[in-house]
């Protein structure tokens, strides 16, 4: 199953951390938390990938792990649809000193 709702946790080297939900459906990633949205693409089959993920504030009130309201994360990762896991690590475009890692686990299928 290449679709799902994933619970994700993320950390940065700033030191900060957070969590949210992402929906992976047909290769697209859409998700968020109480203040930020995440969007991008992943492969539709299990394996390694590289990609860019857009992080944008939709509601003020909290800082994010990068300390920047809107940015692109250049990432490398791995997705395993059979085990229901996703992981990635990357740097913020234009601020490569900011590093972010993410771990996710599928909690339900996406419809």
Could you describe the 3D structure shown?
With 111 residues, the protein is mainly beta. It has one domain (4-108): T3SS negative regulator GrlR (Lipocalin, Beta Barrel), CATH 2.40.128. Helix content is 0%, strand content 67%. It has strands at 4-12, 16-25, 28-32, 36-41, 47-57, 70-80, 85-92, 95-108. Strands 1-2-3-4-5-6-7-8 form an eight-stranded antiparallel β-barrel. β6 and β7 (85-92) form a beta hairpin. The relative contact order is 0.27. The mean pLDDT is 93.
What's the helix and strand layout?
Layout lengths: L3 E9 L3 E10 L2 E5 L3 E6 L5 E11 L12 E11 L4 E8 L2 E14 L3
What's the CATH H-level superfamily name?
A: T3SS negative regulator GrlR
Biggest pleated-sheet summary = 8 strands, antiparallel, barrel
Give the radius of gyration: 13 Å
Named CATH topology? Lipocalin
Helix content: under 10%
Strand content: over 45%
Features:
8-stranded antiparallel beta barrel, 8 strands, mainly beta, globular
What is this structure, in a nutshell?
The protein is an all-beta fold and 111 residues long. 0% of the residues lie in helices and 67% in strands.
């Amino acid at each position: 199953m290449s679709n799902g709702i994933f619970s994700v946790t993320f950390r940065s080297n700033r030191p900060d951390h957070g969590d949210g939900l992402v929906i992976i459906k047909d290769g697209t990633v859409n998700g968020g938390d109480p203040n930020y949205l995440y969007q991008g693409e992943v492969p539709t089959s299990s394996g390694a990938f590289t990609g860019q993920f857009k992080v944008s504030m939709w509601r003020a009130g909290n800082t994010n792990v990068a300390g920047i309201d809107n940015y692109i994360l250049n990432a490398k990762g791995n997705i395993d649809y059979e085990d229901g896991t996703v992981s990635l690590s990357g740097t913020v475009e234009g601020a490569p000193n900011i590093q972010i890692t993410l771990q996710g686990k599928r909690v339900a299928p996406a419809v």
